[in-house]
Amino acid sequence: MYNLNSEQKKAVEHTGSPLLIIAGAGTGKTTVITQKIGWLIEQGLAKSDEILALTFTEKAAGEMSERADTLLPYGYVDLWIMTFHSFAEKILQQHGLDIGLPTNFKLLNEFGQWALIKKNLEKFDLDYYRPLGNQTKFISALLQHFSRAKDEDISPADYLAYANELKENVDAMLSGGALKKRGNDKFQMTNVKSNPNVKFQKIPDTKYQIPDTFTNKEMAEQEIARINEVANAYHVYQQLLLDNSALDFGDLINYTLRLFRERPAILAKFQKQFKYVLVDEFQDTNWNQYELIKMLKPAGDNLTAVCDDDQSVYRFRGASMSNVLQFRKDYPDSESVVLKENYRNAQNILDLAYDFIQLNNPNRLEHQFKNDIDKKLQTQTKERGIIEVIQGEDLQDEVNKVIEKIAELKNKDKDTSWNDFAVLVRANNSAKEFVNALEIAGLPYVFLASKGLYSRPVIMDIIAYLNLLDNYHESTAMYRVLNIPVFKFSHEEIIVFLNLARKKAWSLYETAKYLANFSQESGEKIKILLNLIDRHTVLIKAKKVSEVIFALLGDSGYLKYLEAQEPLKAKETMRELNAFLKRVKEFEADSSDASVKNFLAELNLEMESGAEGSLAVDSEAGPEMIKVLTVHAAKGLEFKYVFIANMVDLRFPTTERKDPISLPDALVKEIVPEGDEHLEEERRLFYVAMTRAKQGLYFSWAPDYGGTRKKKPSRFLQEANLITHNAQRITPDVNKHNFKFQQKNALPIIKSQKQIYEPPKFYSYTQLQSYDKCPHQYFRDHVLKIPKPGKHFFSFGQAMHLTLQKFFSLLMSSQSAVQSDLFGQAKSQNQLKNNLTPETLLKLYEESWIDDWYEDEKQKEEYRKKGREIFREFFDKHAGNWPQVIGLEQSFKLRIGGHLLYGKIDRVDDWGERGVQIVDYKTGQIKDEDKITNDQKYQLLLYQLAAEEVLKIKPANLQFYYLENNSEVNFLGEQKDIAKMQEWVITTIQKIENSIKAGYFPHSSDPCRFCNKSDEVGSFLNI
Fold this sequence. Notes:
The chain is of the alpha/beta class. The protein folds into five domains: 6-101 and 251-339, Rossmann fold; 106-244, no CATH class; 395-450 and 620-751, Rossmann fold (3-Layer(aba) Sandwich); 454-608, PCRA, domain 4, CATH 1.10.486.10; 792-984, Lambda Exonuclease, Chain A (Alpha-Beta Complex). Helices cover 47% and strands 13% of the residues. The strands form six sheets. A six-stranded parallel sheet has the order 4-2-9-10-1-11, with helices on both faces. Strands 3-20-21-22-23-24 form a six-stranded mixed sheet. Helix 2 (29-42) crosses helix 3 (58-71) and helix 5 (110-119) packs across helix 6. The radius of gyration is 32 Å and the shape is globular. The relative contact order is 0.09. Mean pLDDT is 86; it is low at 177-206, 727-754, 817-829 and 1013-1023.
C-alpha cells in the first residue's frame, strides 16, 4: 500500500463484515478501491478473478482498471472490474440459456428500441395514449417509462397485476365499501358510508395504494384505463423484444436477477467465485442493481460500498440516500469509514461547495446521522484558490471574457498546460458559442460530447454523397458534395451552379452535367466528380454501404486530405470517421440487405427518433487541449482551472422536466425524500461542478442571451453568496468582439508544444510488430487510427478462428459436464465427445461465416469451399484424440520493464504433469521452423511468459497451428529466448515513445514495402 492516510488504510484492510465508505470529492476513493484490490491479491486473500468491482460508468471502470494495472507488479488475468450492465451481459451470455434466453441475443440501444416500437405500433392497441401527431416523442416517453419500471425490478406481469388489483379495489371503494386483506392480495368488502370529498389513501394491509386523485367514478375509470393501457403496452414491448431475440439495457439486470432467483446453483457458483465484492458510486445505483449486489454478497460478508450522496446526479427523483439508508438497515453490523482528507481542491473552494450543499438538508446523510458522519472536507494542499464571477454584457461578451481569462492564466503560469482548463456547461447545446470562439481564437480545444456525430462536417459530407448516389436530383446533397474541399470548387463556381440551376429549374446534378461541356474553368473538375459518381453508382448495386464509403474516401483522395490536416484536427476527424464506420458495421451485421438505400432509410429513421449519433468520449486521450464538456461528463475528473458557464436562471438550475408517463407511486420501491427533488439534484450537480476545480473556480453569466427578456443570474450564485440579489450589469467592453489578443498570445504557446500525442497506456504484440515493420504504418494504424477497408482474407481468417472457438467451447463443456441419461446412468466423456461430429463443426463454420470484402461471388464461394475442406481434414486428424482444452481466448495483462502488455491466447491444452500447451492459429500454410523469424516467435514467447507469470501455469509446448494444410510448428522457449523477447519488447516500446515525443514516424525503407510511399502525408509531423 502506498501513501494512504489512516482512514484510507482502514478501508483498504477491512475484511469480515460489510463496509460503507463515505468518500467526499477528491478524497481518493478510486485509490482506495484499487489499493484494496491490490492488497487482497498481494495478501493471498483472493485471486484476481475472485474479486468483483462494479461501478456505474464505463469511464469509471476504465480508470479503475488502469489504476489496478499500475498496482499489480506482474500483471493479472480475468480481473472483474466492470459496469453493472457489462457484468450482467457477461453472465447472461454464459447462462441465459438456463432461463430460455438465446445466448446470441442482440442488445438494443435507444434507437433500436424506438424503431422496434415504431415498426409495431399497431400492436400496442392504444386509446388513451394514441398519438395524434408526431409519434417520436410519444415513443420516447413510453421507452422512458419502461426503463423506469425495469429500474424498479417491475416485470410486465407485476404491472398488469397492479392494474387489475387497482381496478378491483377502486370498484369496491366507489360502490361504498372498504377493503380488508384476505389471503394473497385478495380482498373482501365491508359496507361503509361513501364520502365523495375524501381523497383515497393507501389502504392498510394491502399491497398497493389507491391514487388520491380518484375523487369520482369517471375520473377513477379513466385513470384505471390509462394504467391498464400502459401495463399492456409494457407487456407487448417485452414480448416484441423476446420475439426478436433482443434485450434492452434494463433487461440485462432484470434477467440476471431472474436467473439467480430461478437457478440457485448458478447464483451459488458466482457467490463462491467472488470472495470480495466492491461497489463504486453506490449512491447512483438503482433498486434492481442493489438487489443484484445483495444476491452476490460473499459468504464472508466481504461487501464494500463506496458512496457520496452529495455527488448523486443519476438517481431517480432525487433518491440519493435511498440505497445508502437501506444498506445500513440491511447490514446493521456494517462498519463505516468517512474519507475527509482532500487531495484536490484549495480549502476555500471546498468551503464554498460545502456551505452551498447544506441547502439540501435534511435530505443528506450528514444531516441524517449528525453524530456519526462529518463530511466537511479538509484539504492537504496549502495554496488558497481563486474564486471569481465573470459577468459579461451579453452572451458573446461572456464567452469572450472566459477565453480572455484562459489565455491570461496560461501566459501567466508557464507550468500550466491546456489540459488544466475546463469549460463546464449544463447541457450540450450551451457549448456551441464557446466552441466557435475557441476555434476563432486558435486555442487548442476538444468538445467532449457523447452525441452529435451526424452533425460533424466529415460525416455530413459522407451522408450527402450517399444521398447523391441514391438520388442524383437531391440538390441539397449535391451542394454539400460540391463544397467538399478535395473537389476544389471555389465559392464563386458554386454560385454559378446555383444561379443556373434556379434559372433553368434544373437540379444541381443536371446543372453540373451541362457545365461539364460548356465551362472551361470548371469543366475538368466537374468531369472528375461526375466520373466518380458514375463509378460509385455501379458499386451501390452490388456492394455493402461500408465498401461504398471506403471507395469514396480512397478514390476521391478525401482520406488522404483528412490525414494531411494538422495533427489535432486529423486525429479528431479519424475518431469521428471510426465512430461512423462502427455505426455502419452495426447496420450491416443486422441487415440482410446492407445496401446504401437501406442504410439511408435506417439513418433517416434514427434521426427522426431524435438521435444525433453517439461518439465515445475519452477525456484524457490525445494532445493538450482545453476541455469543453457537460457537468455530468466532468464527474470524476479534475482540472486546475474550471469555468462554469451560463450561470443564469433556467439554464443552471434547469427547469424540472417530469416524466411524461409517470410510474405509479405504489410501484416505486425507493425511499423518496420530501422536498424539491429536482432543485436538490441540480444543487448536487453544481456541487460536482465546483469540486472539479483544484486552484481556480470561475462562474460566468450575462444578462442578455438574446430575446426580449433579460436573464437573471442563477439562484445558485446567490445561494452561494457569490453575488448579491441586486447584481447590476457591467459597463460594455468596447473590445468584446475582438479576438486579436488570442491570436497574438496563444499561438506561440501552441507552437511550443513538443508532444502532440500521448503514448499508449498498454501495448500488444501486434502494435510492436507493426512499428518494427514500418513506423509510419504504425502511426496511421495505432496513433491516427485511420480507418481501412477490410480484406477478404481477414474475413476468412476471422471466420475460421470463430468456428474453432465455438467448437472447442462445446468440447470443453462435454469434457466437464456431468450428465445422466433417462436411466440415471452417467455418460462417459467419450460418449459426449462422440456427439461432436464433422457436421457439428461444419454447422458452426456456416454460423461463423463472414460475408464481407470478397471481390465477387466466385471468390467468396471458393474460400467458403476451402474452409469446409480444411475443417473436414481438421476433424479427421483429431477425431478420437481431441486435446484436453482448459482455456479459450484467454486474455492477460503482463508487465515487462515497467510497460504493460495485453494479449489473448487462442487455446490452452492440459498436458497433465508436463504442464500445458499454448496454441495460436494461423490461417496460412506451414512454415519450416528454421524459417520462422525471431519476431514471429516472440508472440508465443510472450504468451509463454504470461502463462508463467500471470496464469501461474507451466508451458510444456508452444504451437503455431497452420489451418490451410492442418500442420503445426512446435517449440518451447529457453530462458535466453525469453530474455531476448523481453529486450525486443522494451527496445521497441522505447522507440515508439521516442517517435511520439519527436512527432516523427518515418517509413522503414524507400520505397516502403509495407505501405504505399505515394501516400506520404507525414511531413507535418516534423515539429
